[in-house]
Amino acid sequence: MKYKAITAIAALLALPMSAQAGPDDDKLVINGEIEMVTKTAAPAHLQDAMDEVMSGWHFRSDETQAMEADDFDNPGMVFVEKALGAWETAEGSEGKSCADCHGAVEDMAGVKATYPKWNEEAGGVRTLQMQMNACRTERMGAEAWKYDAGAAIEMEAMLSSVSRGMPVNVAIDGPAQATWEKGKELYYTRTGQLDLSCASCHEENYGNMIRADHLSQGQINGFPTYRLKNAKLNGVHSRFKGCIRDTRAETYSPGSDEFVALELYVTSRGNGLSVEGPSVRN
Amino acid sequence: MKLTSLTLAVAMFGGAAVAAEVGPREVQFNEDGGVEASLSGMPGDPAKGAVVMATKSMGNCVACHAVTALSDTPFHGEVGPELDGAGDRWDEAALRGLLVNPKMMFEGTVMPAFYVIDGFTRPGDAYTGKAAQGDLDPLLSAQDIEDVVAFLMTLK
Q1: One digit per residue, pLDDT tens: chain A, 282 residues?
Q2: Is residue B101 part of a domain?
Q3: How far apart are CA B107 and CA B79, in angstroms?
């Protein structure tokens, strides 16, 4: 009996060494009404690499997962509330607010799901933050927001929140294709003295533990994401930067052409998953 | 005076011993991707090797590999194979080669090279995210690697 108990304790102690491998099978329903697609068949362009795509939500603890299921528990929603105020506030030389042109926030449902997106006038792919800044500088006569910083990330989170539950659906063909290809190349390029690509961890090793971290597929359908680690909303370019820094590489900057391309490519790897931002992660 | 010059001579001799170390650009691999000769010219210390493997700012080997002998350190990873029995599966030259540059043995492996300073894409200045200035330092020193090899050889 005693021996058994000791064995059981030994088994428990051994647990952190290999922890709980693999993503879980929980279901995410937000506010008891928005049913989220957090696992689905991989988009056609990705089927050589994997069969199923999964939100990073499946790789987090039950406690962290629960925070995202209710807007009152999701700390990211505080920033969404702030952006609701900014949406109605006139700014710039034209004295216009977002609402003056776009109407109710709810009318923006679906927009986030299609970004990054080709813009004919600009002759390039724009992220949602770039489009927001184009509105500000060209239509409102207001100053551009700093990339991934306070006001910009809050507005992006707010626009994401009204698209929650809708499938990510970015175009990767037509005029966006060249940017997408560039993003794909960046995804598979091993950088830094640790010589790691995005794929090294998030394609070849998702589900595995790296020290105390559970490696996810690196999907970005949940961005902007509220991280418990730094207690704020995090933009996807800032997250890219952190990952590349951790390969002991020279990073790119938020808003750079490289990160715009990488955002388009990584977003497309999650085509079919629900828009989930602002998500909650550790 | 004489004593001073003698001390100086000893110090210079000591310097010469350090210079005999095999630098990252001088490592000779055998045809299997192993490295026969000690990088530092000195034997490794297994106890120090265990520290290198378990310490985040050093080898941080446990981030990817589970090692029962290091179970005092929590949270071993699953990215690479478990290292229990490594001293049975590999000889010293193979283990040294795997630490210096595992891509010589396993093309495309995710494992970093711990004693290579050339050929990287966008090498950074450690974990600052800024570009590296001048030559990189290897991730581990010659003696660190010898110490880790010595520790791994005890895993039988």
Answers
A1: 344 444 444 444 444 444 456 899 999 999 999 999 999 999 999 999 999 999 999 999 999 999 999 999 999 999 999 999 999 999 999 999 999 999 999 999 999 999 999 999 999 999 999 999 999 999 999 999 999 999 999 999 999 999 999 999 999 999 999 999 999 999 999 999 999 999 999 999 999 999 999 999 999 999 999 999 999 999 999 999 999 999 999 999 999 999 999 999 999 999 999 999 999 999
A2: yes
A3: 16
A211/B120 CB distance under 8 A: no
A209–chain B Cβ distance below 8 A for any pair? yes
Q: For chain B, how many structural domains are there in total?
A: 1
CB–CB of A210/B79 below 8 Å?
yes
Is the CB of residue B35 less than 8 Å from the CB of residue B149?
no
Range of the domain at B88: 44-114+140-156
Within-domain flag for B55: yes
Burial B62-71 (b: 16+ CB within 10 A, else e): bbbbbbeebe
Please say if A198 is a catalytic residue. no
B93 located within any domain:
yes
Q: Which CATH number is B90's domain given?
A: 1.10.760.10
Q: Which residue of B has its CA nearest to A186?
A: B121
Answer yes or no: is B130 within a domain: no
